Amino acid sequence: MTMRDELSWYSGPEPAVDGAGPHLPYPSGWFCLARSRELAPGKVLTRRFMGEDIVLYRTRDRRPRAVRPYCPHLGAHLGAGGTVQGQNLVCPFHRFAFAPDGTCVSTPAGPPPRARLQHHTISEHNGFVFAWYEPNGAPPAWEVPETVQAGVVPTAAWSTEVHTYAQEIIESTLDYRHLPVLHHVAVEELEPPTCQDAFLRMRLRLGPDRPAALKHMVQADHSFLMAGLGYLRVELPPPSLGLVSYLWAMHTPTGPRRTRMLVAAGCADIRKTDATEASLPRRCLHRAFAQTMLRTAVSKVHQDLKIWNTKRYEPQPRLAASDEAIGLFRHWARQFYPTP
Questions:
Q1: pTM for this structure?
Q2: Quick one: which of 110, 121, 271, 275 is 20 to 30 A from 340 by CA?
Q3: Which residues contact 159 (CB under 8 A, 6 or more apart)?
Q4: For residue 29, how many C-alpha atoms fall within 13 Å in the half-sphere facing its CB?
Q5: In terms of C-beta density within 10 A (0-12 exposed, 13-18 middle, 19 or more buried), how is residue 235 classed?
Q6: Comparison of pLDDT for 14 and 161, the residue scoring more
Q7: What is the mean pLDDT of residues 116-137?
């Protein structure tokens, strides 16, 4: 198989919604729906997910749940006024109550009908709530990765809607050539991208591309982990502060060529295995450093947004000799799409 064959595997006959290039289907995998702190016990949220609404709620025992939005009784939207009573989700239209397994367990008058809500498979890690998507309904084939330090959660976050595919956003991480051009960042590949099933890892040294003296003073090693096309985590240990910092970038398809991007940052002490054991002064340092990391990352994302929101997907890119990482990424990404 040639490089051209690998990159043009899914050209698709269908045009995108706005006519900008070929259409990509929704990819399979885990995708972030919310931060854990957004979903307090008793809270009900509506999120857009793969072209449909999804209703999130947290029961009294603090377990998150995600269901399709419409009550099987007469079709009321459970996210438009639905409530949580103990373990049950209650419809706002006729007060039908549904247990955590989806079964209708009570009504205001008379026995409940034989009705059941349809659930999404969800998982909660590092302060994020994820939903699994697979177009054929297959169960999860892999799990969301945890950080080395237990209890690490983001303390700073920012989100936006992007007019492109999740694949296009995460692919930019392997597009080394755009870093000095768009972001004025010099890049050195310390460990090339390696793929293992749903995971892709690499390590880069990043710093300002000028002046040379500043480049050597503030450049830092970044470890990247991609888990599917919706999850990117960057680990950055600033040795002088005794910290390990994490930057997450989550990309959740909300509709055809529409993606919700969430960028979040958190920190922990590099010598501790449990982040919750940090003292109050150290936790304040963690928050301050996370805020700084987030501001820096978002400033770079704003530069990318001008490109992402106006570009088109190229199924047969004319790659240069130094674009091997993009070719490897495209080949790895194929596994998350249905066979054309």
A1: 0.89
A2: 121
A3: 260, 261, 262, 263
A4: 28
A5: middle
A6: 161
A7: 95
